[in-house]
Amino acid sequence: MAERNAAVNSDFDEDQEELRDTVRRFLEHFSAEADVRRLMATDLGYDEAVWAQMAGQLGLHGLVIPEDYGGAGFSFVELGIVLEEMGRVLLCAPFFASVVMAAQLLLAVGDEQARKDYLPGIASGETIATVALTESDGQWQESSVTMRAVQAGGTWHLSGTKTYVPDGASAGLILAVARTGDGVGVFAVDGGADGLSRQSLPTLDQTRKQARLDFDSVPARPIGDVADAWAAVRRMLEVAAVGLAAEQVGGAQRALEMAVQYAKLREQFGRPIGSFQAIKHKCASMLVTVESMKSAAYYGLWAVAAGDSELPVVSSIAKICCSDGYATVAGENIQIHGGIGFTWEHPAHLYFKRARSSRVLLGGPGYHREIIARLAGIFPGAS
């Protein structure tokens, strides 16, 4: 119980706070606003040298990967701290796709050989991986998977299209979810495989790259057992939703700080606008929203780390609270800044776009409310 309360009350221990300070100093240096603007305009979308430093110098890529597979074996709480700091600076890198989504899917799928083959590369940063799940409807549920996997001559081949794949254009390893004759399975595909074409997509949030992947009888390696595959995908989605919530907390916290700082400096009628009651109310409401987001996200981090049975509900609650909260705070930040907040030169719009994009990533609030309703038995159906 003490461990649960520590996580929920955000009472991180000394080592965890030291991790936060180290990561924040690194990211403030290598992911300043100028770096974000430069990288989001490139096709690759990240700095390869910084990526290597994050993996080698800080060991962030392998933070929660077990030591048996080349990682450090820390808990998801530590990874949540890192994600919060990354969200704070809008880090442009395939970290979420590779470390949070792909690595967690490999850990969830019961395939020991696949873990040994792929996780060390992800932990070292040498392998950039992603999960290709969503298709034309952009939905994250099993029933939306239509891409076919067919076995011929002892080799599996995938045919179909995946859309909105995080960092799909740069990933060297793609974990694709496809439908077989026995159900939905997970397949590993090399980024340079024959028959695979990749196209970067124009998106609202330029700081997180997405791609369309077309598979034309692409050779693939089955990962795990088809009978257990969707359960593993669902587990990955639950864990990733919590990780995304932590990232959203970081972005919302930074947007709040920007708004408060500006309210103290900007003057109207000979006084700081922060002295006006309307602005005070906005800032106070933003603070309450951010603190609520922290409560939901930190509880989620504890649930993942503890392997708690509440995770399916807790993850959706965290995703709803943090998605709605981030969008609200980012929007209010623009309002408090007034005219300058709407300009390209000001960073407020970057946080607003990240908030809106993250709101639908891994399913929007409405989708997660349906999950909670199903789990509560309010109406039938599989999430």
Structural description of this entry:
With 383 residues, the protein is an alpha+beta fold. Strands 1, 2, 3, 4, 5, 6 and 7 form a 7-stranded mixed beta sheet that branches. Strands 8-9 form a two-stranded antiparallel ribbon. The longest helix is centred in the middle third of the chain and has 40 residues.
Brief synopsis:
This protein is of the alpha+beta class and 383 residues long. Helices cover 53% and strands 16% of the residues.
Per DSSP E runs of 2 or more residues, the count of β-strands stands at 9
Describe the oligomeric state of these chains in a short phrase: single chain
What fraction, in percent, of the residue positions are helical? 40-55%
Measured distance between first and last alpha carbons: 30 Å
CATH superfamily of the largest domain: Butyryl-CoA Dehydrogenase, subunit A, domain 3
**Structural class, judged by helices and strands?**
alpha+beta
What is the N-to-C order of secondary-structure elements (H for helix, E for strand)? HHHHHHHEEEEEEEHEEHHHH
Tell me, rounded to a whole number, the average pLDDT: 93
Discrete helix count: 12
What does the main sheet amount to? 7 strands, mixed
- Pick out the low-confidence regions: 1-9
- What's the architecture of the largest domain, going by CATH? Up-down Bundle
**Morphology call:** globular
Radius of gyration (CA) equals 21 Å
Strand content: 15-25%
CATH topology of the largest domain: Butyryl-CoA Dehydrogenase, subunit A, domain 3
Broad CATH class of the largest domain = Mainly Alpha
In total, the number of domains comes to: 3
